[in-house]
C-alpha cells in the first residue's frame, strides 16, 4: 500500500477518528464508537472501508488496526523519495548545512564556531550587497530561517557578515554571486 493511499483514507474525518480510537486501544465497533463519539453506523461503514483497504482486520464486531501496514508504507515512501538537493557544491559544507537546515529552516544554531560560520555564510545570502536594511527588515528576513532573530543577527555581526550602525544593517562579508548564476 502506498503512503498516499493511506493519507487519502485518513483525509476523511470519520475514518481518521476510527483509526485514532483503534490506535488508542479500542477493539470493538462499540468501543470505537464510544471513544470517537461517532454513531455505530458511521463506525461500521468506516471500518468496512478501512478493512477493504487493508488497514483494519475486521472479525464481526472486533476490529484490529494493522499498524505494520503504516510502517511498511512509510518505509517504502522514504526509500522512493528523491535525495535532497545539496545546499552547497562543496561536499563538506553541504554535509554541515544538511545537518542544521531542514525544509529551508535552521533547526539549531551550531555550537561549533566552524560549523556556525558555514551556516551563517549560507544564511547571509538573503541580504543583497549594497542595501541597507532597518532592523525590522533584518528580523523579517531572519525569521524565515529561525525564530531567534536576535541571536542570528548578533552572530552575523560578530562574524563580520553584517555590519550595523544607527539601526541599519548591511552585508559586509560572505560569498557573493557576481555573475547571476
Structure report:
Helices cover 52% and strands 13% of the residues. By secondary structure, the protein is of the alpha+beta class. The strands form three sheets. Strands 5-7-6 form a three-stranded antiparallel β-sheet. A two-stranded antiparallel ribbon has the order 1-2. Strands 3-4 form a two-stranded antiparallel ribbon.
Structural class: alpha+beta
What CATH calls the topology of the largest domain is Arc Repressor Mutant, subunit A
Low-confidence stretches: none
Largest sheet: 3 strands, antiparallel
Domain DUF2087: 105-171
Protein name: DUF2087 domain-containing protein
Pfam families: DUF2087 (PF09860)
InterPro entries: DUF2087, WH-like_DNA-bd_sf, WH_DNA-bd_sf
Summarize this structure briefly:
The protein has 181 residues and is of the alpha+beta class. It is built from nine helices and seven strands, in the order ααααββααββαβααββ.
Summary keywords:
single chain, alpha+beta, two-stranded antiparallel sheet, 9 helices, elongated
List the helices and strands and how they pair.
Blueprint: H1 3-10, H2 13-23, H3 29-36, H4 40-53, E1 56-59, E2 62-65, H5 67-80, H6 91-100, E3 101-102, E4 105-106, H7 113-123, E5 132-134, H8 135-143, H9 149-158, E6 162-165, E7 168-171
Antiparallel strand pairs: 1-2, 3-4, 5-7, 6-7
Helix pairs in contact: 2-3, 3-4, 6-7, 8-9
